[in-house]
Amino acid sequence: MAIERTLSIIKPDATRRNLTGKINAKFEAAGLRIVAQKRIHLTIAQAEAFYGVHKARPFFAGLVAFMTSGPVVAQVLEGEAAVTKNRDIMGATDPKKAAPGTIRAEFAEDIEANSVHGSDATDTAAQEISFFFSGIEIVG
Ligand code: CMP
Asked: What phi-psi label fits residue 115: left (phi over 0), alpha (psi between -120 and 50 degrees) or beta?
């Protein structure tokens, strides 16, 4: 299996409840390495740009409002099959459907305040990583 990198975001519902360490512990226990990390407060323009693919969806305005409601922690996770491994650790988007032990099953409040974001494929991972990080900020 190939070593990959994926973009993770710990969302405002999780930073508000001081869950960054507990979420990071799940990544590390599963063998993913946090090779870049920063805490930022997204502007509306930044959140709209990051989630541009969802612009036409009915939940877009709410998603942008939520993602700008408090700080987030953007991270690059590295490891074998990191994209799919991270999605397994996160669990389903809707926490009601997330498998026991996943981040969303344990911590998410609802489908919007679902604690974490993770890239859905290697090509989107590369785009999303470059949205938040320059090359010299990623230390493997
Ligand atoms: P995320 O992986 O960050 O990608 C898009 C986000 O939109 C998703 O997680 C959810 O938090 C949010 N969202 C809000 N409502 C919905 C919905 N009905 N279906 C899918 N995603 C939703």
From this structure: left
The CA distance from 140 to 138, in Å, is: 6
Residues 118 and 41: beta-carbon distance below 8 Å: no
CA of 136 to the centre of ligand 1 (A): 30
For residues 76 and 108, give the distance between their C-alpha atoms in angstroms, rounded to a whole number.
21
* pTM of the shown model: 0.98
The secondary structure element, H or E, covering residue 6 is: strand 3-10
Per-residue pLDDT reduced to its tens digit, 28-62: 999 999 999 999 999 999 999 999 999 999 999 99
Q: Which residues line ligand 1 (CB under 6 A)?
A: 54, 59, 63, 93, 111-112, 114, 117
